[in-house]
Amino acid sequence: MSDDRRQQVEHGRTALGIELGSTRIKACLVDEDLVPIAAGTHEWENEFVDGRWTYSLLAVEAGLRAAYAALVADVEARYGVTPTTFRAAGVSAMMHGYLAFDADGELLVPFRTWRNTSTGPAAEQLSAALGFNIPLRWSIAHLHQAVLDEEPHVAELAGITTLAGYVHRRLTGRDVLGVGDASGVFPIDASPVDSGPGEPGKRDYDAAMLATAQDLIGVPDLRALLPEVLVAGEDAGTLTPEGAAWLDPTGGLLPGVPFCPPEGDAGTGMVATNAVAPRTGNVSVGTSIFAMVVLERPLPTPHEELDVVTTPSGDAVAMVHCNNGASEIAGWAKVFGRFAEAAGTPLAADDVYATLLSEAVDDDTDPDAGGLLSFNYLAGEPVTHVEDGRPLLLRTPDARFTLGNLVRSEVHGAFATLAIGMDVLHGEQVHVDRMTAHGGLFRTPGAPQRLLAAALRVPVALEETAGEGGAWGIAALAAYLEHTDRHLADFLADTVFAGDAVHVADPEPRDVAGFQTYLDRYRRALPVQDVAAAATRADVTTAKSEPTTAAEPRLQTEKEPTP
Q1: Within 13 Å, how many C-alpha atoms sit on residue 532's CB side?
Q2: How far apart are CA 315 and CA 263, in angstroms?
Q3: % of the chain with per-residue pLDDT over 70
Q4: Does the CA dihedral 468-43-412-311 come out positive or negative?
Q5: Which of 19, 235, 343, 419 has the greatest number of CB atoms lying within 10 Å of its CB?
Q6: Which structural domains are found in the chain, ordered by start?
Q7: Interval 59-75: pLDDT, tens
């Protein structure tokens, strides 16, 4: 097998996927059967600068180069050969946010990430005008807010894009977005499209909404500011000599590699979990947490708790996106890891998680966490209308404060906001057969999957391939360039995931009842967030960066066997 893979690398028959997550950049190389054969990673973190979460473009460049160099080193160590080309490649990244450029391609203001929640007035006006929920983190909300705030850079604005779109343009020279990523920039017209095998269904921004938004925002040509929209399987350009040198300054990477449309992490998560067909869905647990459900029919009314985005093929998806995910769990894992070290019995991060999470489902642990209550709000949370988040652990004097209840409360707290959003979908009679989970939290088998099934009241599956996460997902989309005689859902089901082992956890009645009791308590206590933020708001102005932990790999939206 190693000789065959060496030949595949030598002859450029592998596919490359790169994803820029919130705490890690990962490069993944797959063979002709889409089996991962090498990887490279680079850890990074956002900065809190002038009241906004951001990453510098220098950090983007350095991180991409480091991740790619690490992948090349891994290939050389495993197979004794240096890759110089690939049969296809793709890039994905965190969705949404705001990268604004002038006519010369110069960045006008620092990159504003999805985590910023300062776009309330713009999002509210757009949602009312369009009759469509525009979340705070969407690119169009950032643009409109800049106009409302009369920011000087708006006069020089020639185009906006996402992080994936920016990297793709640096590599290929093409200003395009995959439809899934584009659906977090501006609403996509998701009306039925007639297309057969080999004919990707064309999608674009909703024309009527564009006209309405243009009048509201007051820019001369809103469409001209947005990247071109492509669906999975369409030609998105090839690696230019400049792009090759930008990614690999050593000169080893050759130009000419075909690229698939750049996608957002939500789209690659759908691919990585085989959840692009109607009645399928997935949950990604990382620094943020979100659920995607592919719709059988359009939602009859807009809901502020729900985004309507698309699969990489352009099919409508209801998305519940929560700004806060597993960061607080990682924080507790760091504390207990340090305790073990101080006690003279150091544990690896995975062992810390395994020990803690096993306590969460111990027979002595209460299904409702024994009266404990945990908020994981490191940032604001639009789903629950929390402007500034504060991580909190609350308990009544008579609560049963045990290790198991503490950990169960933290896991319940990580899933609580997601469950609130999913309740809206249940109310719209949206059906899903099962949800597939991915994210570093699920690297520990058993407890997280079981507790998520209870929180969502639906079976939760773990696919073996999903363990490679978004970087693998975009590599699969790159490989799909050679298989567009079939629809993407058929390609994934019949070729990519055929024969994969699937582990399914059904909701256990005792866990479901316990979580519902916990969630009722959580909803009632939400006003505490506003009080805590008001009492400590001065702290926000001194924040420098998002807290990081020694167990940070658990925060990835990718799953490492399993981001």
Answers
A1: 19
A2: 14
A3: 92
A4: negative
A5: 19
A6: 2-272 (3.30.420.40)
A7: 999 999 999 999 999 99
